[in-house]
Structure formats: C-alpha cells, structure tokens
Specification:
With 120 residues, the protein is mainly alpha-helical. Helix content is 76%, strand content 0%.
Length: 120
C-alpha cells in the first residue's frame, strides 16, 4: 500500500473534474453528506463483526476519497479494507478509529476550501 499523505490535493481534484467548479462543489457536497452515513455503516459492520460489510464499505469510501484526491483518507480507508479482508477485528477497530479522525480532518479542510465556495 503506497502512502498518500495529502489531506486534499485541490489541483488534482480540479484537474480530475476538468476544472468544472460547479461539478467540484457538487462532488464535495455529496461527499460531505454521504461520508458520515458511510462511517456509521462501517461502525455497525464492525460492531457486528461483519467483515463483508467492513470490506465493502471501506472500499466504497476509498473510492470516494480517491475521487476527491483526498490521499490521506484514501490510505486510511484502504487500511480498513485490508483489515476487513483479513478478518482482523482488532486491526479493523484501530483502522476505523484512524479513519474517523482522518474524515474529521478532511471535513474541516473541505469546509474551509475555496473550492466549496466556487473560488480558487
């Protein structure tokens, strides 16, 4: 697993979405709306030791983070995905805690981003 450290690579996000600022805002808003639900589902999967749900949910969040060029969150979701596929409950707990922290950091960055307001 290659480490990705950027919380948000705004230049990559803009390029990935062909510099369509309205689309960037839409993607950011959709992520901010959906990510907390995804995290809740991951927590429920962990509580039930449902490794299929953990693996699938982490994979989906990893894809959303990749779309946003949110490398740190992508790496954290990937770590949870791997823990789920290994059926490693303790590792999944640790990875989910780190993912929760990473999501909080990304949410703060997105909330303050000029991309969300249509500037930059």
């Amino acid at each position: 697993m290659e480490p990705r450290s950027a919380i948000l690579d705004q230049a990559t996000l803009l390029a990935r979405l062909m510099h369509d600022r309205a689309l960037v805002r839409e993607v950011i808003e959709a992520f901010l709306e959906d990510a907390p639900r995804q995290l809740e589902a991951l927590s429920a999967g962990l509580a039930a030791a449902d490794f299929g749900a953990i693996t699938a949910g982490a994979h989906a969040l990893k894809g959303a983070a990749a779309t946003l060029a949110a490398g740190e969150l992508q790496s954290l979701a990937e770590a949870l995905e791997h823990a789920g596929s290994r059926r490693d409950l303790a590792g999944a707990r640790e990875a989910l805690s780190a993912l929760d922290d990473g999501l909080a950091r990304l949410t703060r960055v997105l909330a303050a981003s000029p991309l969300r307001r249509g500037a930059a």
